[in-house]
Amino acid sequence: MGPNIFSFLKGRHSLFYxxxxxxxxxxxxxxxxxxxxxxxxxxxVGIITSLTHKKPTSYHPIETLLxxxxxxxxxxxTLGWLATRIxxxxxxxxIIAGILLGPSLLGIWFPEFSNFVFPxxxxxxxxxxxxxxxxLFMFIIGMELDLGVLQKKAGDAxxxxxxxxxxxxxxxxxxxxxIFEQYAAPQADFLSFALFMGIAMSITAFPVLAKxxxxxxxxxxxxxVIALACAAADDVTAWCxxxxxxxxxxxxxxxxxxxxxxxxxxYGIVMLKVLMPFLQKxxxxxxxxxxxxxNVVALMFLLLLTSAWITELIGIHALFGAxxxxxxxxxxxxxxxxxxxxxxxxxxxxxxxxxxxITGLRTRLGLLSEPSDWIxxxxxxxxxxxxxxxxxxxxxxxxxxxxxxxxxxGVLMNTRGLMELVVLNIGYDLGILxxxxxxxxxIMALVTTIMxxxxxxxxxxxxxxxxxxxxxxxxxxxxxxLSFAQPKTGASLLRVVDRLYPSPEVTxxxxxxxxELHPWDVEEFEKEGFKxxxxxxxxxxxxxxxxxxxxxxxxxxxxxxxNSGAYDILLLGSARSIFSDNEVGGKVRQxxxxxxxxxxxxxxxxxxxxxxxxxxxxxxxxxxxxxxxQLLLGRPEATVTIIxxxxxxxxISQFKTLQDSFPNQIILLPQPPMNAAFLKxxxxxxxxxQGWLQVIENGNNWLEYSPSTLILRGKSTxxx
Length: 720
Known about the structure:
Layout: H1 11-35, H2 45-52, H3 61-85, H4 90-100, H5 106-109, H6 111-117, H7 123-144, H8 147-152, H9 154-183, H10 190-202, H11 206-215, H12 222-251, H13 258-285, H14 294-314, H15 318-327, H16 333-362, H17 371-398, H18 403-413, H19 417-429, H20 435-450, H21 452-462, H22 471-476, E1 479-483, H23 487-500, E2 505-512, H24 519-529, H25 531-540, E3 544-550, H26 554-562, E4 569-573, H27 586-594, E5 598-603, E6 612-616, H28 622-633, E7 639-643, H29 653-661, E8 666-669, H30 676-679, E9 684-688, H31 689-697, E10 708-713
Parallel strand pairs: 1-2, 1-4, 2-3, 4-5, 6-7, 6-9, 7-8, 9-10
Antiparallel strand pairs: 5-10
């Protein structure tokens, strides 16, 4: 049993404690005793009547709301988990949870319980909560929009995304022409109805698409980057069109909506051209979790709420303001990560499922009672798939993507998910969609989202991908060992790993050149040695294993670990003194001579990215350099400029083949001017050890101006 709870009562402490309890207790007793003889003033008769003759009611707002939230949370999380178990996004289970809690199941089989949990009086507050959840969600979606990726792949992304909007939009309007008289709401005019059916057919669920790519490990592949860029461009375009549709629907016609358009454009310009540059500077100051205090978070929330309020005031919906507020947030990854973490749990886990339930309460499958209604639902699904999947696939093929990538892009862009439900609920609130048509469109959103995963798997089986890097290249550099002396070099090495090697298993080795260390020193040295690399690993979501040792011979310690057979490549941190007149020497050269796995020596010069890479080719280093070039080509934003060998008789057919396979990413140069003006355009230099030694031997001084450099030594270059 633990120490006595009253052990702190000693000396003056116990005396003070007992005195306070006695005096205050006695005072409270006297107040109660004397207070019972006091008479209250005569109350107002009207108040008495309102308090004592209140009609009994079974609806208790707070009790009902808490019960609703608890039930929603349980059902949504359970079905979301079940959805992931069968290979579907969790949002599918959460959407189905909303439908099950609505009149389609709970209302039919358990009407009394349904009326008890979701009485009509409770729906307005529940809807307001769902709107707050949507506003926070759209803010997160705006922050997740990578403008850098969108700019780099702007050509293909705009063509594909706009085709994937225009084609289904036109088909949606044609569909509206045929179903308007039967399924449109009585108060809806044809223009608003047709425009809205078009946008409902052309939306893409960017967050669901991103999650599918992440779960399949495709976010950094050629296909993944293109699909994300297309979905981002689609999101921006579709939401702008939806804003225009809402303005027209509320104004009655395009001319009356003109002031709304002008105010919306003006507001967008202010946000993007005035506030966004300011926030980018702001983000450079608040770059870590430590200085992201509550005042900063409160300021960001104030910006979010103000932006949502202004767009609602303009007449285009609060969600657009929330989305735009997210877009202009600082592009600093750590800033966005911290802010997202503070919002995401509440919005995604608690508030957003409330939106699914509101959607479920509106989805009455019982209204689809006739076979003709289900036939029409089938037509809606077929037109949606043909327009979105077919339009995206056609545009991707026209922009010279392979059949595999074209079909896969079409399948991914056909994902609708939560974003479709947001659009449908807006149409329902505006009085454009009837409950019957609303139910049909919700079914369409579910079917097109559920089919994404299986259709993508089928595409990969039937149409093998010949453009992505070979699987042997991915496996070749799976296991990476990092060794460094300076702690900050470790973080720099991890950035290189993140840019070069897909899904690596990284082990970080740090050795202290001492034989006898006090345990306190060991703990402190280990903490300091891995401080920066652990921070970088968390930022980049890389699983990192650390090894710390005290070694009398650091070189031998590194070789012992590297030659254990557990690694594919060893990356060594070096210093800028490697650019001296001496050859690669000292401990680094000894490791290069005796290491059994491939080796890379890293020379840091403010490395940030690897989008523009210069590759200095030497015939003796060709194998390892080609391998690394192929790794880079797995990232569509990377461009590799290869300096061809100058030796007579060198076979350059392999380089030509590589360029034919990746015409947009490979540049072949025979003998460019290796001066400062040329070299400053590049982020990274890849050079083999033999090429490095040759450059040093020839007395070339251009290495002084080279960017961050990775010197590579293949297994076959030097025998250990």
